[in-house]
Amino acid sequence: MHSNIEKVLCLLYNSIGDSMEKHVQIGFDILKTFHDAQYEAFFVGGFVRDTLLKRQTHDIDITTNATPNDIQRLFNKVIATGKAFGTMTIIEEGLPYEVTTYRQETTYTNNRHPDQIRFADTLIDDLSRRDFTINQLVMDLNGDIHDHFNGKHDLNLRLIKTIGDPNERFQEDALRILRALRFAATLNFKIHHGTKTAILTNDHLIRHLSIERVQEELFKLFDAPLKKTVIDFINTTDIPAILKLTQTFIALNTIDDSYDHIDAFTIMAIKNELNQAGFKLSKAFKAEVMTRASLFNHHQNQPFTPRSCFETPKETLLGVNHLLTLFGFDDQRQTILKMIDALPIRTLKELAYRGRHIKEDLNPKQKTDIKTIESHLLDGVLTGKYDNDASTLKKAAQDYLYTLESE
Predict the structure, then answer these.
(1) Mean of the pLDDT values across residues 135-155?
(2) I want to staple 105 with a disulfide (CB 3.0 to 4.6 A). Which of 6, 114, 187, 254 is the partner?
(3) Distance in angstroms (rounded) separating the CA atoms of residues 171 and 167
């Protein structure tokens, strides 16, 4: 192993794993390819920041003075993920490396994307247009870290601080407001007072962001381990109102940090704010959230039952129970697990006497009674009132049908 790779890996978690070690090694090989071709190239951003923080890292980004065409010429597999903005993705041994040519940006008219970009001549020109001081750190081929805007100082102070004037940075790209909040929650950093003031001044600009980018940042924020201080601060801004999530953020302000994005979006549904916010959620995710919201509302006043444990996946039930405990309701986790383990059947197909048997044998006058009787039998089996055998259930079905028709 090269000494420079060893230098980097020794900074990372001991649990980095073979896959990440390979990722880093290939990354150094990419830097060397650029270097051998007489180009500059550096690791930049999150990988360098997380390495210094000894945090587990995943993506490796590279900045270079090579143009997109140069990059395509140097490497066999390159995807033009954002060629107009100087961004290409090199694929080596199935692993992606996002590579961006040094660039400078001009004016911004939509508070998100520059009107145009031009390739820059120097590394510092490129770094000066980035968002936060802790994200402009670069690492060279030798594993040495270069710091042009006091990023190490802010890492040591655990500060989120913009490069240059924070008002300008946020007016250039309003997404940086949400990124500042997300980084503070993810890293457990404080936001520099000047940056925080600029967020309060410019928070109205997030209304110009696409809902997809807002959604992406919120997912990461809600999954951050230590977000309560950030949520407290958000509630002093206009962000909840702009996102049409006022009641959601008020609710989040009352619970501890042990919720995640599924819990947060479930709270949105409970507060009837999910649809009005206009998020672009997958059908599966939205269905899960709506199911949890319904169960949450029901089980505030009703205990979990064998029937609910039969009809609902365990992960969903435990998620609902966890959310209930966050709002002060009794923890029923062990009760739920015991009921799941004790279920005599796991699917409706295992019920020994079902709807088709009821229709064939009893032929109720009201066809809706078929489902009603089946549901009664299922409850009886799940609670132990009836044994799951055909003769027992047929007798129970006959008795229950007589009751229904006598009403």
Answers:
(1) 95
(2) 114
(3) 6
Q: How far is CA 331 from CA 125, 201, 318, 407, in A?
A: 55, 42, 10, 39
pLDDT higher than 90, residue 299: yes
Give the CB-side neighbour count of residue 54, counting CA atoms within 13 A.
Answer: 6
Q: Return the axis-axis angle of helices 261-270 and 283-299, rounded to nearest 10°.
A: 60
Q: State how far the alpha carbon of 108 is from the alpha carbons of 171, 181, 212, in Å.
A: 8, 22, 20
- Which pLDDT score, from 0 to 100, does residue 20 have? 78
Q: How far apart (Å, rounded) are the C-alpha atoms in residues 392 and 119?
A: 80
Alpha helices in 224-367 (DSSP H): 228-234, 239-242, 246-252, 261-270, 274-277, 283-299, 306-311, 314-326, 333-342, 355-361
- The pair of three-digit structure tokens given for residue 284, joined into one six-digit string: 């599966």
126 neighbors 66 (Cβ within 8 angstroms): no
Interatomic CA distance for residues 108 and 114, integer angstroms = 5
CA proximity to 341, closest of 311, 370, 296, 310: 310
Q: Nearest 5°: phi and psi at 363? A: 40, 65
How far apart are the C-alpha atoms of 164 and 186, rounded to whole Å? 23
Rounded-to-integer distance, Cα 53 and Cα 57, Å: 10
How far apart are alpha carbons 156 and 190 in whole angstroms?
11
Residue 19 carries which side chain, given as an amino acid letter? S
CB 383, CB 309: distance < 8 Å: no
CB environment 189-201: b (16+ within 10 A), e (fewer): bbbbeebbebbee
Matching CATH number, 1-150, of 3.40.47.10, 1.20.120.530, 3.30.460.10, 3.40.640.10: 3.30.460.10
- State how far the Cα of 228 lies from the Cα of 65, in Å rounded to an integer: 41
406-to-112, 130, 370, 399 alpha-carbon distances in Å: 69, 76, 16, 11
Could you please report the per-residue DSSP string of 296-323? Answer: HHHHTTS---HHHHHHS-HHHHHHHHHH
- Phi, psi (degrees; rounded to nearest 5) at 158: 60, 55
On whether the CB atoms of residues 307 and 379 are closer than 8 A, the answer is yes
